[in-house]
UniProtKB/TrEMBL annotation:
<dbReference type="InterPro" id="IPR021861">
    <property type="entry name" value="THO_THOC1"/>
</dbReference>
<comment type="pathway">
    <text>Carbohydrate metabolism; hexose metabolism.</text>
</comment>
<dbReference type="GO" id="GO:0005829">
    <property type="term" value="C:cytosol"/>
</dbReference>
<dbReference type="InterPro" id="IPR036291">
    <property type="entry name" value="NAD(P)-bd_dom_sf"/>
</dbReference>
<dbReference type="InterPro" id="IPR001509">
    <property type="entry name" value="Epimerase_deHydtase"/>
</dbReference>
<feature type="compositionally biased region" description="Low complexity">
    <location>
        <begin position="590"/>
        <end position="623"/>
    </location>
</feature>
<dbReference type="Pfam" id="PF11957">
    <property type="entry name" value="efThoc1"/>
</dbReference>
<dbReference type="GO" id="GO:0006012">
    <property type="term" value="P:galactose metabolic process"/>
</dbReference>
<feature type="compositionally biased region" description="Low complexity">
    <location>
        <begin position="533"/>
        <end position="547"/>
    </location>
</feature>
<comment type="function">
    <text>Mutarotase converts alpha-aldose to the beta-anomer. It is active on D-glucose, L-arabinose, D-xylose, D-galactose, maltose and lactose.</text>
</comment>
<dbReference type="InterPro" id="IPR005886">
    <property type="entry name" value="UDP_G4E"/>
</dbReference>
<dbReference type="GO" id="GO:0003978">
    <property type="term" value="F:UDP-glucose 4-epimerase activity"/>
</dbReference>
<keyword id="KW-0299">Galactose metabolism</keyword>
<keyword id="KW-0119">Carbohydrate metabolism</keyword>
<dbReference type="Pfam" id="PF01370">
    <property type="entry name" value="Epimerase"/>
</dbReference>
<feature type="region of interest" description="Disordered">
    <location>
        <begin position="533"/>
        <end position="624"/>
    </location>
</feature>
<keyword id="KW-0520">NAD</keyword>
Length: 1048
């Protein structure tokens, strides 16, 4: 005995470090086993080894409590070493085969749950070795099953071991086949057995009664009142205690269904259920009343603040728990108020009720057999009791559906579980018959082979590349349709309708495709016939025969191949010729056409002494009827095409010979292409420009040499030449020795794109990346008041939608500074002149309202994201004038919509009108015509520059904002208005042109007076507009006289 003890201790001392090769431990154990195997009988030696090994394991297990407080890893490592030693000795037949399992069974009963988890991890890792040679229902298999079932029963009393239980169940399902009886717990004893509740005596109540007996006579009335209250309180407590005991008494049949075999169990159970269900229903009704509509909508909200989880709290046990470990009469009402608790009780109730239904007389006859006596009990559910069970199931299910949240879904899930459980119960009642199917096999060459071997040849064949499909488009019909020229479903859906020449060309090509297909078919048929004849002739005549070939019969025809097949004329001559409808048209095709000539067959020389008879006339191969029909169709389509095209395309008839429709279509397409090129060239010339306002703002930016200008323009009303001239002005203004930054500031990066196209604008910003563009001055817009009244949708789409798209893209690319070029028209007819910025916005035209909408969008954005966005709207009035050099100025496309450029073009002769139409002279102004606040375009450009500088982070412009949004609007103007007639007079002095004007009716959308109050911009931005009206007219005329045709 001491020898074995020393050997085990020596093995543990020299145990290899993990991870280790099992062979090293096997060699050491085998050496010790051989050393001591002759010390006694085999049984005695085994017993000694088992005793020593068991002692080592449990000597260590006794120290678990102290070891886990110091170093749990060291403890578990030593424990695993001893278990590995036990298993290795067993594998060397030094111990009984069931010895490791008996050690594990006793060890799991002595260890804590965390240690059991570690031990089970060892079992999982050694599963293949532990289960080697294991026979179900015998020996170590039964010990293992009993051990793990006991562990599951122990874990079921805990609230936080779900994962551990799952690991054990998964292990059992892998070790024991599902159809194996020993792997199924037929009695369902995984759950805890109900142990009853503790009856708590209320000692304080007795003390209250005793003190009540000692009161004096003077206090009798008060005592009586108190005694009455105490009596009511005791009665209520008695009822609560009685219900408490009744409620928890249900747990006994829940946990031990065989008790229904006792006489009084069912009647007591029914009485208890009938008392408990109304209380549960009342609790649910109260909860729904407190929750209101939230319960109906399936949502659950609570105003209670949840307790923060403390260290050691189990996070997965907060919803469900075993009530037996937390209950008392005082807590029961609180437990019933919990939805999860009520659902648990109802679920238990439905489970036991469904179980009882399997014990009706009819149900028992279906499943009870002599083989499953262990599942039976001496109990039969009578019809009256069965009816009560069925009614109770209905009530409990309805109560389950009424719980919140998600009661109907929870009840449906429970019903699905029960439906599936019936099949499981039926399988257990049948004593778990195996349902494993034998692997598929088949007899091949006299022997049975498996699926892989039987299908090997087929699988290898499938790996081969398939042959080319006969029909390139999938089927014969589809391929034929494609070859006939159909390219879309509409070609098949829509019948042919007379249209352009290209429609007839399409029909002619379809006829050509039909002819080609027919010829190929005939060629293949003739080739097969020729091959058959050659084969027959070879079999009838000797191979060595040298006789003269027989003369060819008149009726015999040579085979038609691609080499000798006769050419079929695409235009067979007609025998019945009618006079053409027009000299340019060919004769109308006749319905009967016969070919006039056919190619002659080559003569064959014969070497014979026999006189040759007179040669008979060899008939030409007959023309195929289908080919002839297709040719007639082609000629008919050609004639119809020429007839349709004679009026519109007669000039091309001299280029197409005798009526080649394909050539005619080519000539027509060439003419259209030339027209498109001319139109594009004209459009390109007409669409070059940058608006007057934009070009002067660019000039102002470049003069600072602090900004790199990026221009976005679709050239709807502008010329790129303007940008070239602005760049030239910037370069001319550079110092003698410019820096690289100065040179770069004089260049303009221009992008031709449309602000209404999000993709095009996004592509521009993508070039510079996030934060690459510092700020935006948004000037682009339609701006004619009169046109906006006629085309409101175009103005809203171009002015409002485009602004919204621009802001969205700017936000994506972190460009959050914008100067918006607005208009004074946002004020409509102002109540006060001059107009301050505080005036309400009430535009009268779609153009003015589009500006109001855009301002509101920008302001809302600044309010929504005050930490990101800075924006200024500039409400200016009527810009006029041009750059003093005359290089840049206003050159609108078409007829100008503003007064000053219209007068300039009339003076230069660009507009051939003698009279200016003035809209109304009955306004409340000095001369009756509209008054506007005109300012020089360069003054306006400087105002945009000041606004852009105010968006810088160091600016104090937004410090006096009434809220956190950094948005402001400013008027830019001179503060003095000029009427239409005053403007006409000023332009007369500047140009010397004698203007004539005519007063007509008012124009919708016009307001009498729009004169700015620029005092706020002067105060906060430092804005000034010093140029008078005379300078504006002089600079405008300088530009127009130097550029009479604008930028063209």
């Amino acid at each position: 005995m001491s020898s074995q003890n020393q050997s085990v201790k020596q093995l543990l001392k020299s145990f290899p470090k993990r991870p280790f090769e099992q062979k090293a431990l096997d060699d050491k154990v085998a050496k010790e086993v051989r050393k001591l195997e002759s010390k006694g009988s085999l049984e005695n030696v085994k017993s000694q080894w088992e005793l020593v090994l068991r002692s080592e394991v449990f000597a260590l297990a006794e120290t678990e409590g102290q070891a886990l407080q110091k170093d749990d890893a060291a403890y578990y490592g030593k424990l695993m070493d001893r278990l590995d030693l036990v298993l290795t000795f067993t594998e060397h037949d030094a111990c009984d085969a069931s010895f490791p399992f008996t050690v594990l069974q006793d060890l799991l009963e002595t260890q804590t749950i965390p240690s059991c988890s570690q031990i089970f991890s060892w079992i999982e890792g050694r599963a293949s070795r532990l289960t080697k040679g294991m026979i179900p229902q015998k020996g170590k298999a039964l010990i293992l099953l009993r051990t793990l079932n006991d562990l599951l029963r122990r874990l079921s009393k805990m609230g936080s071991t779900t994962l551990f239980c799952g690991r054990i169940s998964t292990f059992l399902s892998g070790v024991f086949p599902l159809g194996e009886r020993s792997g199924v717990n037929l009695r369902g004893e995984y759950g805890p057995v109900w142990e009853g509740v503790i009856d708590v005596d209320r000692g304080d109540a007795e003390m209250t009664v005793d003190s009540a007996k000692q009161v004096g006579p003077g206090d009798r009335m008060d005592v009586d009142d108190k005694a009455e209250d105490d009596t009511k309180k005791r009665v209520a407590e008695s009822k609560d205690k009685e219900f408490y005991n009744t409620f928890w008494s249900l747990q006994l049949p829940f946990s031990r269904p065989p008790l229904f075999a006792l006489p009084d169990t069912l009647s007591k159970f029914k009485e208890a259920v009938d008392k408990v269900l109304p209380v549960i229903k009342e609790a649910t009704t109260k909860e729904r009343a407190m929750m209101g509509n939230r319960a109906a909508s399936g949502q659950s909200h609570t105003s209670k603040r949840k307790r923060e989880p403390e260290p050691g709290d189990e996070t997965n046990s907060s919803d469900y728990f075993f009530a037996k470990f937390l209950t008392s009469p005082d807590l029961l009402s609180l437990e019933l108020a919990d939805t999860h608790f009520r659902r648990q009780i109802l679920f238990q109730l439905l489970m036991i009720l469904h179980h009882l239904l399997t014990f009706t007389k009819t149900a028992k006859a279906a499943w009870a057999t002599a083989r499953n006596r262990s599942l039976q009990m001496d109990f039969t559910l009578e019809p009256a009791d069965a009816q009560w069970v069925q009614e109770t199931i209905t009530k409990a299910t309805a109560e389950l559906r009424s719980t919140a949240p998600g009661g109907p879904a929870f009840a449906d899930t429970v019903n699905v579980i029960f439906d599936r459980e019936r099949n499981w119960v039926r399988w257990k009642n049948d004593m778990c018959p195996p349902f494993d199917k034998e692997p598929w096999d088949e007899e091949v060459d006299g022997k049975r082979v498996g699926l892989e071997e039987a299908t090997r040849e087929l699988r290898e064949k499938r790996r081969e590349d398939p042959e080319d499909w006969t029909w390139s488009l999938g089927s014969e019909s589809l391929t034929e349709i494609w070859q006939m020229g159909y390219r879309d479903l509409t070609d098949l859906q829509n019948p042919f309708q007379v249209g352009d020449v290209k429609d007839f060309v399409k029909k002619i090509k379809q006829e050509d495709a039909r002819i080609d297909m027919r010829k190929r078919t005939l060629a293949r048929t003739a080739e097969r016939i020729a091959q058959a004849r050659a084969k027959a002739a070879a079999s009838n005549q000797p191979a060595a025969e040298s006789a003269t070939p027989a003369p060819v019969s008149q009726d015999a025809q040579p085979p038609i191949t691609e080499a000798n097949k006769p050419e079929m004329s695409p235009h067979p001559p007609s025998t019945a010729v009618t006079s053409p409808a027009h000299p340019s048209l060919p004769p109308k095709p006749s319905t009967t056409t016969v070919p006039s000539a056919t190619p002659a067959l080559p003569a064959t020389a014969t070497a014979t002494s026999t006189p040759v008879p007179a040669p008979a006339q060899v008939s030409a191969p007959p023309v195929d009827e289908q080919v002839q029909k297709f040719e007639e169709n082609k000629q008919r389509w050609s004639w119809l095409a020429l007839r349709m095209a004679r009026d519109q395309y007669l000039q091309h008839f001299g280029k197409i010979g005798t009526g080649d429709i394909l050539l005619l279509a080519q000539e027509i397409e060439a003419e259209k292409e030339k027209e498109r090129e001319k139109k594009e060239e004209k459009t390109q010339k007409a669409e070059e420009n940058v608006p007057n306002m934009g070009s002067h703002v660019v000039f102002a930016l470049q003069q600072t040499r602090r900004y790199k200008v990026i221009s976005i323009d679709n050239h709807h009303n502008s010329f790129p030449t303007a940008l070239t001239r602005v760049s030239q002005l910037a370069r001319d203004a550079l110092p003698a020795n410019p820096t690289p930054a100065d040179l770069e500031s004089a260049e303009i990066t221009a992008h031709q794109c449309d602000l209404t196209s999000a993709e095009e604008v996004r592509a521009v910003f993508e070039n510079y990346g996030k934060g690459g563009i510092w700020g935006v001055i948004h000037i682009a817009a339609y701006k004619a008041v009169g046109e906006s009244v006629e085309k409101p949708l175009e103005y809203y789409a171009n002015n409002v939608v485009a602004t919204n798209l621009l802001l969205q893209i700017m936000s994506v690319y972190d460009c959050t500074r914008i100067v918006y070029s607005s208009s004074a028209t946002v004020y409509g007819t102002p109540p006060k002149i001059p107009i301050p910025e505080t005036t309400r916005l009430k535009a009268h035209s779609p153009y003015g309202r589009s500006k109001v909408m855009s301002e509101m969008i920008i302001e809302d954005l600044c309010h929504a994201e005050p930490d990101r966005w800075r924006a200024i709207s500039l409400r200016y009035f009527n810009p006029a004038g041009a750059h003093p050099s005359g290089l840049i100025g206003e050159d609108p496309r078409g007829r100008p919509g503003n007064l000053l450029p219209l007068l300039a073009q009339m003076a230069v002769g660009r507009i051939k009108e003698d009279t200016l139409k003035v809209f109304g002279n009955d306004y409340p102004t000095p001369d009756g015509t509209c008054v506007r606040d005109y300012l020089h375009v360069l003054d306006l450009a400087s105002g945009h520059l000041l606004a852009l500088d105010a968006l810088a982070p160091e600016s104090t412009t937004f410090d006096n904002c009434p809220n956190e949004a950094r948005y402001k609007a400013y008027n830019l103007g001179k503060g003095r208005g000029m009427s239409v007639l005053q403007i006409v007079e000023a332009m007369r002095k500047a140009t010397g042109f004698d203007y004539k004007y005519e007063i007509i009716g008012r124009r919708r959308g016009d307001v009498p007076d729009l004169t700015a109050d620029p005092s706020l911009a002067e105060k906060e931005l430092g804005f000034k507009a010093p140029q008078p009206l005379e300078v504006m007219c002089r600079d405008l005329w300088n530009w127009q006289s130097k550029n009479p045709n604008g930028y063209a």
